[in-house]
């Protein structure tokens, strides 16, 4: 950054509305219209604020389908950006803004739930074009075994699908829970696990588990996070659900540009940059432990990230 850029860099965050935008982007990426609604600002005005923040390097944009979503910058210019983001995360949102944020999250969650209710069978067929359980499951299990966790620990899988991974977890741990927003997918998991299974299945999400004061030693997301309405908020929930020294293991797609996955597989996000996941986890007290990559067909690549609750 040149000396002449400093004024624009700091001026971009001198506006209270733009600071609140950065605060909101700590929970998820948002489009212009969503941000306009949450802050009760005209769309043209919000576009101007985002242009200022983007030009100064405070936010990045990415296209998701027909929309452009904004997120916090992954960089750390002058060693102040990430520090400011951490400070903003400690500040409460105004109540009207928080209410609008919760409404948008609920709308996204409803769309995701409706997709799996209506397309559960087709989803499996389309998902085969990206990745099958046999592609990533053995790798994730090998990584899990290398961690040498106690069989007495409490383990959670979020969005277990047909239950293949739950079945493998039940062979390793005595206390295994699966939670899913879709009753259709839970029914498939029940059938796959069979009669007499000790796995507990819950209809709901991480909000449901926090409401029950549940805590876990290991949490898995297997090819699920790209379906989640607000991925960073989901990781924040996991940090609250994990016991001390607990681990979060995320297996998901690396960033890609194959738009068909959105319509045919219900993907809300086209994968994630590893650094994006690392920063989200770090903001919520989870330390990055290790990474594994798995090359797949059709131009997709799967990553597995392990984070510890330190």
TrEMBL record:
PROSITE patterns to which the protein is assigned, alphabetical: HTH_ARSR_2 (PS50987)
Molecular function GO labels: DNA-binding transcription factor activity; methyltransferase activity
Residue ranges of domain HTH arsR-type in the record: 1-92
InterPro entries in UniProt: ArsR-like_HTH (IPR011991), HTH_ArsR_DNA-bd_dom (IPR001845), SAM-dependent_MTases_sf (IPR029063), WH-like_DNA-bd_sf (IPR036388), WH_DNA-bd_sf (IPR036390)
Signal peptide positions (record): none
Pfam families from the UniProt entry: HTH_5 (PF01022), Methyltransf_23 (PF13489)
Keywords: Methyltransferase, Transferase
PANTHER family: TRANS-ACONITATE 2-METHYLTRANSFERASE, TRANS-ACONITATE 2-METHYLTRANSFERASE-RELATED
Name recorded for this polypeptide: SAM-dependent methyltransferase
Biological classification of the source: Bacteria, Pseudomonadati, Pseudomonadota, Gammaproteobacteria, Oceanospirillales
């Amino acid at each position: 950054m040149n000396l002449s850029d400093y004024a624009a860099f700091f001026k971009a965050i001198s506006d209270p509305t733009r600071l609140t935008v950065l605060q909101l982007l700590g929970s998820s990426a948002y489009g212009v219209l969503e941000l306009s609604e949450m802050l009760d600002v005209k769309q043209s005005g919000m576009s101007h604020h985002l242009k200022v923040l983007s030009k100064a390097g405070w936010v990045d944009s990415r296209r998701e389908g027909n929309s452009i979503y904004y997120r916090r910058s992954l960089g750390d210019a002058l060693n102040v950006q990430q520090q400011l983001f951490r400070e903003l995360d400690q500040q409460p949102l105004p109540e009207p803004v928080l209410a609008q944020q919760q409404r948008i999250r609920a709308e996204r969650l409803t769309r995701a739930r409706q997709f799996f209710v209506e397309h559960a069978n087709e989803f499996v067929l389309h998902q085969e074009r990206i990745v099958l359980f046999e592609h990533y499951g053995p790798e994730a299990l090998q990584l899990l075994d290398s961690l040498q966790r106690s069989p007495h620990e409490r383990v959670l899988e979020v969005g277990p699908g047909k239950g293949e991974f739950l079945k493998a977890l039940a062979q390793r741990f005595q206390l295994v829970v699966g939670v899913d927003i879709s009753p259709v997918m839970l029914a498939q998991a029940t059938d796959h696990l069979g009669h007499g299974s000790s796995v507990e299945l819950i209809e709901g999400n991480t909000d449901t588990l926090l409401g029950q004061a549940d805590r876990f030693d290991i949490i898995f997301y297997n090819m699920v996070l790209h379906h989640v309405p607000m991925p960073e908020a989901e990781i924040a929930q996991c940090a609250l659900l994990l016991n001390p020294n607990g681990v979060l293991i995320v297996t998901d797609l690396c960033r890609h540009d194959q738009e068909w996955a959105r319509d045919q597989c219900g993907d809300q996000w086209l994968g994630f940059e590893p650094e994006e996941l690392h920063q989200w986890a770090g903001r919520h007290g989870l330390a990055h432990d290790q990474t594994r990559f798995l090359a797949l067909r059709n131009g997709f690549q799967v990553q597995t990230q392990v984070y510890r609750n330190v």
